[in-house]
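Query form — protein DUF1365 domain-containing protein

QUESTION: What is the three-dimensional structure of this chain?
INPUT:
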Amino acid sequence: MELLYLLCSIVSTFFTSLALSLLLPFHALLRRGRPSRASDSPVSLYQGTVWHERRRPVHHAFNYSVRYAFIDLDRTLQPPPDHLSANEARRIAETNGPVFLLTIPRSVGYEQNPLSLYYCYDLEGSTQHLKKCIAEVTNTPWGERVSFVFNPNSDLVAKPLHVSPFMDMLGNWRIRANAPGENLIVTISVQHPELGDYFVATLKAKRVPSSMVSDHAMFFWLMPHKVAVWIYWHALKLWWNNVTFVQHPRYSNPAYREEALIRDQKLQCCPAVGWKNDNNLQVEGSEPRSLAGRINGNRWFKWRDAKWPWS
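ANSWER: The C-alpha cells for DUF1365 domain-containing protein are given below.
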C-alpha cells in the first residue's frame, strides 16, 4: 500500500509540477512590474550544501546543493502551511523573543522537508540570544513527522522516528545548530550502541543578498523535487550494496514511540514528568492520540502525520 501511495504521489507531482512550471515565467513577468520591497521582507535566503556520510556497515557519502528560506514568523502575515506560528513555537520552547523558521518552501505544487528548524530566542534587556530550537523531522516515504525541542549548543536526543529503511530505531541523535547570521550550520550525528558514531549529516549555508534574488519562486524552483530525488536515489544505491533493509517499527513494535520517550528520559538522567495529550497542536489528519513528553521540564515531543503530499 505504501508503494502504491508513493507511485501515485510521484505521478501526481510530475504532472502538477510540469503544468505549474510552464506558468511560472508568466507569473514572473507579472511580478516584475511590481515595486520591490526586498529590504522589508520577513524572509532571508540561504544557499549551501547538505553532506551525508555513513561509515558502517558500508561507507557511503554524498552531498547536494540546497536553498532554504529563513522566515521571521513574527513579521510574516501567516506561517507557512502545516508549520507552527511564532506564538506556538514560543509556548513550546518556553522563550519570549523572536522566532525564525528555516525550511524549504513549496515549489510548483510540491514540498519536501526532511528537516525544518525553528530558532527560538530569549530577550534579556536590549539583547537577544538563541535559547532553544524545535526540530520538525519528516520521514520518507511514510508521511510521518516528529517535532521536538533541543538545545542548539549541543544536545543528545533519543531517536524518535524511523527516517530511513536502512537504519533501526536504536541509538541517539547528537544535534547542534548555530545562531544563523551570514553563515548557518546544522550538524546531526547518529550514535548507535553497536555501530558507534556511524552516520553524520551536515548543512552548511551562506546568506544570499536580497539584491541578487528578484523572484523567490524562481530561486526555489524544483528545490524540493531535487531533495526527493537525492533521497530515493541514494536509498537505491544502499539497497544495491546489500545494506540490510529495516522494516518500519510500527509493524513489529507499535510501542516504539513510548520507548523513545523512555530512552530519552534516561538520557536526561531524571524521572519523567509524564505524557500528556497536546490538543492545542492537533491538526487535521493527525492521529487521534498525540504523544507529547515533558522531560526535565524542557523536552517536548510530538508525533503526527505529515500533510499530503508528504513534506
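ADDITIONAL NOTE: Residues 67 and 223 are 7 Å apart (CA to CA).
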